[in-house]
Amino acid sequence: MAETGPQRAYRAACPGCGAPVEFRSAQSAYAVCSFCRSTVVRSGDTLSRIGKMAEVFDDHSPLQLMAGGRWEGRAFTLVGRLQYRGETGPWTEWNAVFDDGTSGILGEDNGSYVFCMPDGMGRDVPPAPSLRVGANTAVQGRPYNVTSNEQVTLLSAQGELPKLPPLGQPFAMVELRSPSGEVLSIDYGTSPPLVTRGREARLDELQMSGLREDAAKEERARQFACPNCGAPVEVALDTSKSITCRSCHSIIDLSSGLGGELRHAEQAAPVEPAIALGSLGQLQGVQWQVVGFQHRVGHEPGDDEEFGWGEYLLYNRKRGFIFLVDSEEGWSVVKPTTGAPALSGGEQSATYLGNKYALKYSYEASTTYVAGEFYWPVERGQKTFNRDFAKGDTLLSMERTPKEVTWSSGSRIASDAVAKAFKLEDKAGLLKRDSGPTGGSGIGCGTIIVMFVIILILLLVIKACVDDESSGGSGFASGGSARSGGGSFGGYSSGGGHK
């Protein structure tokens, strides 16, 4: 709980049922009655009922109403919750009221959290269609990249709220991210549009209290029957939006909660991950659990040659999610970024948090197999356009779809360290990826391509010599180069935005 309560509060009877409805902030204009779910609007000292709110679905978040914390030295209390659904899945935003009555937003962001405060753009807010995904713009003299522009709807709400978009009616929400790690959100569900600015926030940094520790433990054993084969499926992760059946390997959508419709998609023969789901490992001084795995393939535009890699989704209750990536170039540990790196004019380099990274690869990627649980609604066949950048052992990866741009950052890790972390020393040979760009032991894909090019050049030279002898002229042959490595440094398919 916050150390002290808000300085101003107003309480009155719900116009629908007579139960008490309290406003802790003078900035809050709406509330949802916890008894009859009436949507109440406040005008001065008068409360009016304007409708009834849909039931809140249980997203199994550790956050809950009346949980408290501190942000930049000020105590706050979570007094309201808004649940949205976008084109890439649902997410939640919490109304955080400070002791002086002002409000902020604690929202979900790629498996972690971002704390935002109301802000402005220093100019009129542009119409949503003019903010094209991938475009650069300046806000109050600072550079930003448009990373998401999609239509969203309000699904449900709870508690005390400073805003309330029309229930079930689509509206635009745009996100811009900066090279300094900031995220700026424009909510077109209100008039004028609401602009907020924030940065990443860890729960331990927020010094949260009153979390759903006990409730989360009770929910860890949630079970249901697979909608495809009927086998029991157990959900171990509080925030899972999708899961795979271990019997038939179908992907099951959990984004509407276990009480909602469980859609599923069948998959072909499974890919066996080198690290088993559920394994515990100590990386970067933190214990992580492997909760998900996806196999992906990529190819350069205009090239039919494919390369593959695996991505393990790791979870820690206080740190959120990271990815352990197994590519032909080695292992890496990466995490979604809150901000968006700045690309150079020719997109040959990217700058983030003061560091400049050089472009290594550009390629198209798709997901071919998934297993386990994920915090976004993962789909087999998801396609993205990727760019990988590097500065020594430090890595950046960009993924772009028509609706969003997502970034992740991290660094390389030795295969021996991976084997030691997950107690797989007996399988160290299978994890070996440190022998160079062509991957582990044996002849890699890059080596085969180089050999093929050399043979082709020799054949062309021989043919040219034969033609030269027969025609009496002079001829020459030239060869090209091929990409010898593959794999993403840490690209992933996420919900993006605040999803």
From TrEMBL:
Regions that span the bilayer: 441-462
InterPro entries per UniProt: DUF4178
Disordered as annotated region, ranges: 475-499
Record's keyword annotation contains Transmembrane helix: yes
Keyword terms: Membrane, Transmembrane, Transmembrane helix
Family matches, as Pfam families: DUF4178
Domain of life: Bacteria
Ranges for domain DUF4178: 69-199, 277-413
Record has Mitochondrion as a keyword: no
Name of this chain's protein: DUF4178 domain-containing protein
UniProt organism field: Caenimonas aquaedulcis
